[in-house]
Write a structure and sequence with these properties.
alpha+beta; Metallo-beta-lactamase, Chain A; Jelly Rolls; 7-stranded mixed sheet; 6-stranded mixed sheet
Length: 748
């Protein structure tokens, strides 16, 4: 056998061609390196007395930028593993034979990956970019000195340490004797010495990239001020999530960083992504950054808290990866810049970001809440520099790379500030911290994180770990914050109903459901409606692929209860779930007494239809769907009838099938598929040569059979982040080197 193909995980393969010294990672979604560790493909070996890791030396990128909502190409950590942990870039290393890691893919994907890797290495790359982000020229010069010290004196383009193999039409040579060609969209054939292997990187319709480590469900209370520990590991730890925390203040949920597979962590903690009020972001490295796209997939922009420098660095990396303009970032996040070195007020939670020397723009965070006896403080020190490194970087020469002795001391003093609880990066090396620096720290409790190894005896005398799901309660909560949330949801549903009347519904108990509990089964008339307050619920329909996910603010089985008919859906908890129980009889009487039941019923019918489409199936609350439903135009077409779409509206096939466009651009669309949104991404419509391609905006549709079309205001849909993200995925689902696919749901 000349070649060997290993199935690592859905959408991830590993191919060995020893005779050609080719070890190819096919597909590089989040945590692909951890999957290789988990499968034993990456192992530690030794040569000439030097210990190092094995692993891939080339990466085949997916033709798809996004599949089923998730990014397909995140090559930063696989490349870092090759360069440093395998030793391909290290001077005098036995594995440094002059070869570079190879990236294989479309010219568009290669260009995006190089830009993204460049920003991952350096963040902002000039003093001018820093000044543009809002700092003074003097401060920018000071920060560039630090950056250049980490960069060994200069900013190196990614082409210096990565080779690119463009794959257009026909075949391309990866290395001597090994070639690759595209068979179909995202399907490839590798050939060597007369032997061939096929690689299909397409995910199935309902398939997602798996998490490399298991997580057990945990029930989390909403306290007044608490820290939930959702990660101790680093970017190489295949047993645990990377260092991160969930901060709870007055029952509201905030994230500190968003590492890969953050959605799995939230599911295990019983926290629906719609419950996340905001994210505090330390920096743009993938192990703290790659989960951002999961948080975008809600029906409102998530509050994004960072200093202007960190935000600018993250924005440039994010937009480089997706090949979008930087203005697009603000369509998914509600940006809230924080002043560095000052206490910023976030709805009563005080937060102070402080500079942490790192290759990219980075801050640590200190959080405090006023309580009896004074403040309760939590310090989150992710990606810090050891005191040894700070001392080695310290110089009085203001023209040389490094930092001043005064700044070095200021950073140390900030790291060592007193806190009731402090989580510390002890990853070691040139860009991470050392537990020994905190031997005399006077904080009440120290937690040691950002490492894949076990703590040493010396480290355990300084601090401890924090297993996934453990909670440090800083200030206990004496009120039910979920009831507050329930009140806000009901007020948004029934804005004209007096508050005192809403208390009729609020005067009900909050029920808790264990993971995998059937809350409401199909085939029964529901006696209760549930207003989802915390956690994630799966809605199962009889349709093929009819699994949808609901989050806080959703009403479960409302329509069936209102009509007093059997539910067509089964509602099932994913993790721990909390919901306000509403008697179906009480709810019907409330609607009849205080709300226009005919108006509600009509809108709810449209709402149900929209919910069953791919575009609005997940993370869109009833209130958002209700607003869409009220502006939805429904057109029923007989076989052969023509439909001319309004350029200002998005059109969704509710049932049946029709053909949109003419000639080579004709597309056959079925239930749930959509068209008429290309204008949202007109600036991105470029071919592989970077030249603008003509936009095809089909206006004429012909019904292949009796069908139904839902027409929605495009501007209104585009303001829903999860819908905009799905539209962006559909826009990117055409490929410049193969026949275009329909722009709608992923292929079956």
């Amino acid at each position: 056998m000349v070649m060997r193909k290993l199935v690592v995980a859905p959408g991830i393969f590993y191919i060995e061609v020893p005779a050609a010294n080719l070890y190819l990672l096919c597909g590089a979604p989040a945590d692909s390196v951890k999957h290789l560790f988990r499968r034993g493909i990456i192992q530690t070996t030794e040569r000439d007395g030097v210990s190092y890791e094995t692993g891939p030396n080339a990466i085949l990128l997916s033709d798809s930028m996004i599949q089923n909502g998730h990014l397909c190409n995140l090559a930063e950590f696989p490349i870092l593993q090759m360069l440093y942990r395998q030793g391909m870039l290290l001077p005098k290393h036995p594995n440094n034979t002059g070869g570079k890691p190879k990236l294989i893919g479309t010219p568009e994907q290669l260009a995006a990956q190089l830009r993204y890797i460049h920003r991952g290495n350096y963040g902002l790359v000039s003093a001018e970019e820093m000044v543009e982000a809002g700092v003074t020229p003097e401060r920018a010069a000071e920060l560039m000195r630090i950056k250049l010290k980490f960069a060994f004196g200069g900013i190196t383009p990614p082409e210096a340490f990565v080779d690119c193999v463009p794959l257009k039409t026909g075949s391309a040579e990866i290395c001597r004797g090994v070639s690759i060609r595209r068979l179909a969209y995202n399907v490839f054939e590798l050939e060597h010495d007369g032997e061939t292997l096929e690689i299909d990187l397409n995910l199935e319709r309902d398939q997602t990239y798996p998490c490399p480590y298991p997580l057990s469900p945990v029930a989390i209370d909403r306290h007044y001020f608490a820290v939930v520990h959702c990660g101790d590991g680093d970017g190489w730890d295949y047993n645990r999530p990377v260092m991160g925390s969930v901060l709870i203040h007055q029952g509201r949920v905030y994230l500190i960083d968003a590492g890969p597979n953050i959605h799995y962590s939230l599911d295990a903690l019983g926290i629906g992504k719609k419950e996340v009020a905001g994210i505090f972001h330390t920096h743009c490295h993938d192990d703290h950054f790659a989960g951002l796209t999961n948080l975008m997939q809600c029906d409102r922009p998530l509050q994004y808290f960072a200093t202007p420098l960190v935000r600018a660095s993250v924005t440039r990396k994010f937009c480089a990866l997706l090949s979008i303009s930087e203005s697009e970032f603000a369509r998914y996040f509600d940006i809230r810049d924080l002043a560095e070195g000052e206490w910023n007020d976030v709805m009563g939670l005080e937060v102070r970001p402080s500079l942490s020397p790192h290759p990219v723009e980075t801050t640590v965070f200190h959080f405090r809440v006023l309580w009896e006896g004074g403040y309760r403080t939590y310090s989150h020190l992710a990606d810090i520099a050891s005191f040894t490194v700070l001392d080695s970087m310290s110089t009085t020469d203001t023209s040389a790379p490094g930092l001043s002795p005064q700044m070095a001391q200021s950073v140390k003093d900030d790291y060592l500030g007193d806190a009731e609880l402090k989580k510390i990066d002890i990853g070691g090396g040139m860009i991470h911290g050392d537990a020994a620096d905190f031997t005399n720290d006077r904080s009440t409790r120290l937690l040691l994180a950002h490492t894949a190894r076990e703590l040493t005896d010396a480290e355990r005398r300084i601090g401890s770990g924090a297993p996934f799901g453990t909670v440090d309660v800083m200030i206990p909560g004496e009120q039910n914050f979920l009831l507050r949330d329930a009140s806000e949801f009901l007020r948004s549903y029934f804005p004209t109903v007096p508050n005192e009347r809403l208390h009729m519904l609020l005067n009900n108990r909050i029920a808790t459901f264990n993971p995998e509990t059937i809350i409401t089964p199909a085939g029964r008339v529901p006696e209760e409606i549930f207003l989802l307050l915390a956690g994630k619920v799966e809605m199962l329909t009889a349709d093929p692929g009819g699994s949808h996910y609901l989050f806080s603010g959703s009403l479960l089985a409302e329509s069936a209860a209102l009509h007093n008919v059997a539910s067509e859906e089964t509602y099932r908890s994913v993790g721990f779930v909390q919901a306000l129980r509403l008697s179906a009889d009480l709810y019907r009487n409330f609607i009849n007494r205080f709300f226009s039941s005919s108006e509600l019923f009509a809108a709810r019918q449209v709402e149900e239809r929209l919910r069953r489409t791919h575009l609005f199936s997940d993370a869109v609350s009833n209130s958002t769907l209700f607003a869409l439903a009220r502006n939805c135009q429904i057109t029923v077409l007989g076989e052969g009838e023509h439909f001319v779409g309004d350029a200002e509206r998005l059109h969704v096939v509710g049932r049946g099938r029709l053909t949109v466009g003419e000639g080579s651009h004709a597309q056959s669309l079925g239930k749930g598929e959509f068209w008429g949104f290309d204008s949202l991404f007109a600036e991105l419509n470029q071919n592989g040569n970077g030249q603008a391609s003509p936009l095809v905006v089909p206006e004429l549709a012909v019904a292949d059979e009796e069908c139904e079309v839902y027409s929605l205001p495009l501007a209104q849909v585009s303001r829903i982040p999860v819908a905009r993200w799905k539209l962006f995925e559909a826009f990117r689902s055409t490929h410049p080197y193969v026949a275009p696919r329909y722009r709608g749901t992923p292929r079956p």
